[in-house]
Amino acid sequence: MPRVNRVKQAIRDGRTATGFSLCFPSTHVIEVLGRLDFDFVWLDGEHGPFGLADIEEHCRAAELCGVTPIARVPNIESSTILQYLDRGIQGILGPHIACRADAEQLVRACYFGPIGERSFGGNRGCDYDHELGDKVQWYRETNENMLVGALLEDAGVIDNLDEILAVEGIDYFSIGPNDFAQGLGKPGEGFTPEVQQVIAEVYDRIRAAGRAVGDDITRRVDVKNSLLSLGSDFLAG
């Protein structure tokens, strides 16, 4: 039986899943924080220095701690996402989803049929193809435990949002404020009131369509910022 995705379970239970994010490789952090009751660890595979071997080792550490591994991927190509899923990642955040075709590609890459076109391999993400039992049921349960997020970062999102939201199979939508602001022609202004107002309007449209934004289903602490805050407090004290 596929591993239970604790974030998907939290969605089913109607609660907010909690996690922590890593922008640099550290299985030790997962082992330490995994002693607490976190639901997931979020790995930045787009901007962070994670190789595929690192991703696999972080999945092992997370699974040993009962934490669900989720990753932002560098792109939404099927071959890229498959490499992450074959390592053991159970949640994908796809960057730069700017139109319906992007959203459809993200879904196609993340799920087995009949929802998508994920390829089956004999690696750890497919339990090494060992004693899976009824493979039809295994495919279905794996799909049920797949978390898919779409990262909206481009100006085209404003005009294309309704078509993006019409695509089934995406659990939540988030906005990357810095890239989104740059797409609006306002580089470096992601947290200004003007851009934040546009972001709030996009989130309102998402919720009005009956879809979820990231903050609706998850909350996470950034390990990097936590370390910096701890160090600053120590020096100040």
Please describe the topology of this protein.
Elements: H1 6-13, E1 17-22, H2 27-33, E2 40-44, H3 52-64, E3 68-72, H4 78-87, E4 91-94, H5 100-110, H6 135-144, E5 147-152, H7 157-165, E6 172-175, H8 177-183, H9 193-208, H10 214-217, E7 218-222, H11 223-236
Parallel strand pairs: 1-2, 1-7, 2-3, 3-4, 4-5, 5-6
Helix pairs in contact: 2-3, 4-5, 5-7
Describe the protein in words.
With 237 residues, the protein is of the alpha/beta class. It has one domain (6-236): Phosphoenolpyruvate-binding domains (TIM Barrel, Alpha-Beta Barrel). Helix content is 46%, strand content 15%. A 7-stranded parallel sheet has the order 6-5-4-3-2-1-7. The longest helix has 16 residues, at 193-208.
Tag the structure with descriptive keywords.
15% strand, alpha/beta, 7-stranded parallel sheet, single chain, 237 residues
Brief write-up:
46% of the residues lie in helices and 15% in strands.
Which CATH C-level class is it? Alpha Beta
Report the order of strands and helices.
Answer: HEHEHEHEHHEHEHHHEH
- The total strand number stands at 7
Gyration radius (Cα, Å) is 18 Å
Strand residue content? 5-15%
Helix content: 40-55%
For the termini, the CA-CA separation is 50 Å
Overall average pLDDT: 96
CATH superfamily: Phosphoenolpyruvate-binding domains
In CATH, the architecture is: Alpha-Beta Barrel
> Overall 3D geometry?
globular
Compute the number of structural domains: 1
Spatial strand order of the main sheet: 6-5-4-3-2-1-7
Number of helices: 11
CATH fold title: TIM Barrel
Question: Which class do the helix and strand fractions yield?
Answer: alpha/beta
Unreliable residue runs: none
Largest sheet: 7 strands, parallel
